[in-house]
Amino acid sequence: MEPRQSRGSVRRGLRASCLLASLLVASLAGAAPKPGEALPELSSQDLEGKTHRSQEWRGRRTLLVVLTDKDGGEEMRRWFDTAATQVPDSVHRASVLTFKVPFFVSADSARERAKKKVPEAFWTDTWLDKSGDVGKSLGLASSREPYAIALDERGQVLAVVHGNADSPEARALLEKLSGP
């Protein structure tokens, strides 16, 4: 009888651990910045190796597209292509590539790979975070779908969308960037 109780205890423990892990993942995924909140202070290097801080985005509306998985580049590009036709030129466009790159891949090597996929005109507005810390600071889960964040002139979040650029939520986000 003892072994059955022991197995049952193990099963209950495993179930409790799985439940706790899924709640933690759900809370992290849902911890993205909310409308009305200030974007946390962020810092990273662009594709040319120059260090930037998120304070640079203050003073103008900004579309920030964050990629948390190395395979999401095409959808990120669609966000910027869509924005080019739907928001005024005065809206700043920035991107952050934030994912764990293996330790044996240097930051310079990762930047060179990214440069091959990002047009040169956007290298200074594309940050590369090979440790994934920026994504963690923003409370974003790893996903092939990008996160788009609309910021007002004060660095306050207007809207956040995790998904495709052609969704109704994406259109609403882009409208907020165009509005007063």
UniProtKB/TrEMBL annotation:
Keywords: Signal. This is Thioredoxin domain-containing protein. Residues 47-56 have a biased composition (Basic and acidic residues). It comes from Myxococcus llanfairpwllgwyngyllgogerychwyrndrobwllllantysiliogogogochensis. SUPFAM superfamilies: Thioredoxin-like (SSF52833). The keyword Transferase does not apply. The keyword Cell membrane does not apply. It comes from the Bacteria. InterPro entries: Thioredoxin-like_sf (IPR036249). Residues 35-56 are annotated as: Disordered. Residues 1-31 form the signal peptide.
